[in-house]
């Protein structure tokens, strides 16, 4: 299959998922008024079961590969890995929001079972977003590495408007030469530092000449 055909297939599948999501939301909306009258805590079960099932599938969904690299801020990530992760996370947020609102999780836990608007339900989404915060930052750093930039540039998010520049960078084609060169330079600097430390230990008589020679070989 050519690259063009593969992209077309992915686009069609994505549209299909989007259609199903809107259809699901419409059906849930129509049933919401009747279901809300079922006011006992048993009402929570459908939403909780759906959330548990979704969490169970996270490890086997290819788009959630960054979850397996939870705190890995080294290396690179291509555009497919980065944007697939964010698309899957967005879909999960929408479904979690629906599950919370429909079953009344936020309502029962914080508002005594009072009826809430869709946007007022937040507990399930907040917990999920806290869970994906670190992998979101790590995959963002690896994506920046792939275009030769430091992951620390993500701090631009704190300025608000800086997210525009980050999105532009995240959409650029991978070019990891700069990152590799930086990593190589860093490794060389570390070796030089280790050799200087070994030389000082030898001169101070802390290690013998034999120990110095053997240790030096490991770094050369």
Verbal overview:
With 220 residues, the protein is an all-alpha fold. It folds into two domains: 38-175, no CATH class; 179-219. It is 69% helix and 0% strand. It has nine helices and no strands. It has helices at 3-36, 45-57, 65-68, 79-103, 105-110, 123-145, 162-170, 177-203, 209-219. The mean pLDDT is 77.
Quick take:
The chain is mainly alpha-helical and 220 residues long.
What is the domain tally? 2
Helical content (DSSP H or I, runs of 4+):
55-70%
What is the ordering of alpha helices and beta strands?
A: HHHHHHHHH
Number of strands: 0
Shape: elongated
What is the C-alpha radius of gyration, as a whole number of Å?
25 Å
Q: Quote the distance from N terminus to C terminus.
A: 46 Å
Helix count?
Answer: 9
Overall average pLDDT: 77
